[in-house]
Amino acid sequence: MSATDDETPFDAYREDVERPLTRLFHEYAPGRLGYFTVGMVANFLARMASLVPPILLGAAIDAIFTGESETLELPLVPAAWLPAGELPQFWFAVGAVAIAFLATAVFTWIYGVTANLFAHSVMHTVRVDSFRKMQRLDMSFFDEKQTGEVMAVLNNDTQNLERFLDNALMNSARLVVMVGGIAAVLFYLNWQLAVVTLFAVPAMVGFTIWFMRAVEPRYVRQRSAVGRLNTRLENAIAGMGLTKTTSSEAYEADRVSDSSMNMFERTMDVLKLSYFYRPGMELLAGVSFVATFLVGGLWLTTGTAPGPFTGTLSVGDFVVFLTLTQRIVDPLAEVSNIVDQYENAKASSERIFGLMDIPVHVDDPEDPVDLEPVAGRVTYEGVSFGYADRLRATDDRAFEEPVIEDVSFEAEPGETVALVGPTGAGKSTLLKLLLRLYDVQEGSVRIDGHDVRDVALTDLRSAVGYVSQDTFLFDGTIADNIRYGQFDASDEAVREAAKAAQAHEFVTDLEDGYETRVGERGVKLSGGQRQRIALARTVLADPEVLILDEATSAVDTKTELLIQRSIDRLTEDRTTLAIAHRLSTVKDADTILVMADGEIVERGTHEELLEGDGRYATLWRAQAGDRESAAERLVGDD
Ligand code: ADP
């Protein structure tokens, strides 16, 4: 599965997400609207305050330095509020400028804090929510090995939201305030010159639209190059063992280099255009500046309105025009970023809600039956099952060929039922149905007579223990790993469980004993040791029903004996469904089921099956031969 331009499993869900950003606000903004509103208002006030100094400067030039006007003339401020006399007005202007700078700083700070609180707290909740949802997804979802995709949603996509909620939203507010505010001031001061100054704005908007259209496909290609590179890296790191043992480092490095070069080129495609855009905008602003300078300058030097213009222009107004013209570029140049962040956030929230909308098939029943106290009778009746072809958002999922066909059997409380048969016969699959890692398509799996689909998932899974072939250990101490699932268990209980699982001895031999940290995925322990930890975990959980998926990986005879002894203790008084590869371990089972191609082809006790002289008997004789030759080898070694 690659996360490239090929269709990914998320695409199917994504298509059905409507108006993702509206939904984002609808679901996550309430409760945080305070931060959002304060952020927006502070942003608005900060930008307004930043316009005050140039306006005051212009008014002061006219009223105080050139004496062109009698008194300070300020937009929105009645003359009655201003002090009389040149010097008091000068002090007033200086004070107001200082306050404006202070206000800009304070409001920018408030805006920064609240906008970030808003964006990051939305991001946090979205991340945790999608993680929770992800945990509930059907096991079949994870069979497609889309961990990279899920990681991307939880990580990159929530990050994209942050950039949008923080930067893009606030910058677009700033854009409106600045362009709108500046235009209003300029028109107030001198509408004719304002027309000259703002003449370039439509050109800037046009230029921006052209840029966005041109850059969009390049962005798409760049993003898919990033995806390809990530997939390649992920794959290369996961396969490091294979790469080393086959000396394929050069080959792998070449592949990474190709992907990286591709990303480099795609990124340059974007950058070439981006680096053209910014100076282009500045050039247009320059045109506007020159035009204003030319017309305003002529107006002032000749003392009469040039060309079609009428009326007068003061030096102060001219200064305000020139200062504010330059202020218009920055917010406008942000437009391309805003649009990019908007597009990214839209795609990201589509993916996030796509994940959240994936239907869960294996879920708690509406009205679960109470399982307590669990006796441990397990019944399979006419069970058929096939893996989903490829999980889709729709309910009419396509199923591959059935892997389990019409299987029926029963295990009485305390009994042991063993499953044997060739690899791929469906043994693991059959037992996973009891845990509801998957749901049957036909028939039913029952525990104490209750269909497992009528039992709450936590009740079911605490009644059924599962020791799988591949024992996963979390990064943490050995004690943490034994305690996983029974988080309140005392140290004493952990120790007892380890003793029962024959793990106590090797654990206490380790330098830090139970506090020894196992590395990520438990690589510091041998396979046999990991398995005993997993067994200890199950002993501690003390389930009434036990599923044992025997490891095919070979452990040495001594370890095997140890593990077998701990398993024997574990299975003594509980219902056990065990998959076995070495028949010697199952000959005492109450019932042995021989599976082939998803069906039970033989059943009975060890003796009955030998008498029947079918597949089991053949297999037994073959393994007996192995055992003898192994014994001979051992004798020969002596
Ligand atoms: P056994 O435990 O007897 O070796 P399994 O139950 O593991 O057999 O597999 C039975 C069949 O189901 C095999 O053909 C296998 O390829 C297929 N299978 C197992 N797991 C999956 C899965 N997660 N998705 C699709 N097919 C699967």
TrEMBL record:
Residues 378-622 form the ABC transporter domain. GO terms for cellular component: membrane. It comes from the Archaea. It is a multi-pass membrane protein. Pfam families: ABC_membrane, ABC_tran. CDD domains: ABC_6TM_exporter_like (cd18565). The chain crosses the membrane at residues 90-113, 172-189, 195-215, 281-300. Residues 38-344 form the ABC transmembrane type-1 domain. Keywords: ATP-binding, Membrane, Nucleotide-binding, Transmembrane, Transmembrane helix, Transport. One of its GO terms (molecular function) is ATP binding. This is Multidrug ABC transporter ATP-binding protein. It comes from Natronobacterium lacisalsi AJ5.
